Amino acid sequence: MSRKRTRIISLGADVSIQTLATNAYPDQQPGTSGLRKKVSVFQQSGYLENFVQSIFDVLDGCTGQTIVLGGDGRFYNREAIQIILKMAAANGIGKVLVGQNGILSTPAVSCVIRKYHAFGGIVLSASHNPGGSDGDFGIKYNIGNGGPAPEKITEAVFARSKGITQYKISDAPDININHLGTSRIENMQVEVIDSVADYAEQMQQLFDFDAIRNMFKRGFTMRFDAMSAVGGPYARKIIEDLLGAPRGTVLHGIPLEDFGGHHPDPNPVNAEELIALMDAPNAPDFGAASDGDADRNMIVGRKLPVSPSDSLAILAANATVAPGYKKGITGIARSMPTSTAADRVAKSLGVPCFETPTGWKFFGNLLDTNQATLCGEESYGTSSSHIREKDGLWAVLFWLNLQAATDKSVNTLVAEHWAKFGRNYYSRHDYEGIDTVKANALMDRLRNKLDSLKGQKLGSHVVAMADDFSYTDPVDGSTSSKQGVRIIFTDDARIVFRLSGTGTVGATLRVYLEKYEADPSRHNLPTQTALADLIAIANEIAQIEAVTGMTQPTVIT
Ligand code: VG1
Ligand code: CO
Question: Is the CATH number of domain 423-556 3.30.310.50?
Answer without folding.
Answer: yes
